[in-house]
Amino acid sequence: MDFREIMRILYKGFLYQLVVISALVAISFALLLSALFTSPAALAVAGFAVIALLIALLSIFFLYLFRGYRALHGLGFRWAWWLAWGPVALMALAAIFAAALAMYFLGHPGVAARARIDPTYIYQVMLKTPALLGIFAVFQAAYLLLVAARAITLNDLRRHSKVGLFGVALILLLIGYPLSLIPLMDYVGGLALLAEYIAEMLAYREAARAPPP
User: Which entry of 6, 58, 126, 137 is 20 to 30 Å from 101 by CA?
Assistant: First the structure.
């Protein structure tokens, strides 16, 4: 698989993923607005739609992004390996954390009841539970490594392809990620990361259409 074909695969993965995520956000927003007025049957249909979209999102990752980043790693982009396997590691850690949290709640029904009323109470639970805090810390470290891998790969792609949008995406990533960690600035960070996603997607399209570097 040559460089332009890899860029084409990654562009399609980013595009299809954006469509599915937009549909998920739209359904979630509609459910939030109509939760008090929607019939149980309609809520069930919406729930099945959300599950179907999540399955589609997972399929898109493995069919396009996982495949594309592994191929990119084969061309010598070393950190693309973590862009392929990092999300898999994060999904596994998230599943382990969810299972551990569920087991904790089963043994502490009073804590579970309070967490249902105030979801932010989960953070206090984590601080008091070393096992949960440890899993969460490993998850955050893996996510930070994923961000670093994306930044390094974007810079490598910019130098290799001479496509300026990779540099724009890199700058937006370096601005958006730190801001997303700061209270009251996280919305600005989120917007910057959304702009980064779109810039990166368009960079893949441009690199796929450009002459071979």
Answer: 58
How far apart (Å, rounded) are the C-alpha atoms in residues 71 and 58? 19
Packed helices 80-107 and 66-74: angle between N→C axes, nearest 10 degrees: 140
Q: Is the dihedral of CA 91, 93, 88, 172 positive or negative?
A: positive
Helix, strand counts (H, E) of the chain: 9, 0
Mean pLDDT score, 141-169 = 96
Least confident of 66-70, 74-78, 135-139: 135-139
DSSP secondary structure letters along 69-114: HHHHHHTT-TTHHHHHHHHHHHHHHHHHHHHHHHHHHHH-HHHHHH
| Angle subtended at Cα 75 by Cα 74 and Cα 79, rounded to the nearest 5 degrees | 70
This prediction's pTM = 0.87
- Give dist(CA 49, CA 37) in Å, integer: 19
- Range of lowest pLDDT (11-25, 115-129, 199-213): 115-129
pLDDT attached to residue 131: 83
Three-class SS of 189-209:
HHHHHHHHHHHHHHHHHHHHH
| Contact assessment for residue 132 and residue 101, using Cβ atoms and an 8 Å cutoff | yes
